[in-house]
Amino acid sequence: MKQRANTASHQPDVTSMLLLLGVGLLIALMLPLSRAAMDIGMTPLAYAFWQALGGGILLVICGRRGSPVRLSRELVRYFGISGLTAIAVPNALAFIVVANIGAGLTATLYALPSLATYGIAVILGMEALSRKKSVGLSLGVAGCVWILSPNPAGINPDSLPWLLLGMLVPLSLAVGNVYRTSHWPKGATPEQLAPGMLLAGAALILLVVVVSGSAHSLLFSGMDLWTIVAVQSVLTAISYRGFFHLQKRTSPTFLSQLGFVITPAGLLFGIMFFGESYGWAVWGGVVLLLIGVVLANGPTRERKNCSAVSDPG
User: Fold this and answer.
1) Is 299's pLDDT higher than 70?
2) Residues linked to residue 3 through DSSP beta bridges, in sequence order
3) Is there a contact between 312 and 179 (Cβ–Cβ < 8 Å)?
4) CA dist 225 to 102, 207, 228, 232, Å?
5) DSSP annotation string for 193-219
6) pTM
7) Which chain regions cross the lipid bilayer (predicted)?
8) How much of the chain exceeds pLDDT 70, in percent?
9) Least C-beta-crowded within 10 Å: which of 171, 184, 260, 294?
């Protein structure tokens, strides 16, 4: 396996920042689409399945002009673990716990992968421990939690077991962030890896649905739903292609900060599409989040760790 210096050994460049912003906005735009689909009868798992399948198929079609992908045991394993940690497990767990702890508290789980990813990367020697970055990521997570769960003291004790189960969501995402960088197949491109992860995720979700005896829930009809699924598939294809380019250019920790873009963008889209309104406390959380992002990505004086990991290209 070819070795290289850690991607985190330099500050993210302008292209990386634009990719983070663009991919985060596209993922946030998926939220009002999913809400519209749920409002007219599509189940969450069905939506997750068609989202991954549609996006994966579009990327396969678009990628036919490039170099063909030769499936190997290494690639199949990479697709399976990536689809499991980034799509199947987080989505399935989130859909299970949302009915028990509420949508707002469930949404806060997606703010936590940044800290978990950074912790795993430091333990594995992929990144150096930085006090400034640690404080920045902590502030960013605090801002997201403040925005999405303004009254955490009101958590019902009966919800605690479900909340603990939900903690596997950020853990799964964090493991996936680190795995995709450290095990990036030699010579593979983002254009080759993105569709594989999406299709593997769709296959795993399909397996869960079939085993649970609810395969009929995947069927749907109506022009409105077909339109939403078509638009969602295009957004998924574009966003995950950009997602893998971002993964290749930066560190797992930087990639994990997508949640810091998705949270405020989701608020703005809620205002634009559903007329939602938010109080001063929510916007205070946005300010805290932005301060954390600036601290986490600003220059540091700490000595950078140059431990070797696999070469993603």
Assistant:
1) no
2) 310
3) no
4) 25, 23, 5, 10
5) HHHHHHHHHHHHHHHHHHHTT-GGGG-
6) 0.78
7) 46-63, 75-101, 107-126, 135-153, 159-179, 199-219, 225-243, 255-274, 280-298
8) 79
9) 294
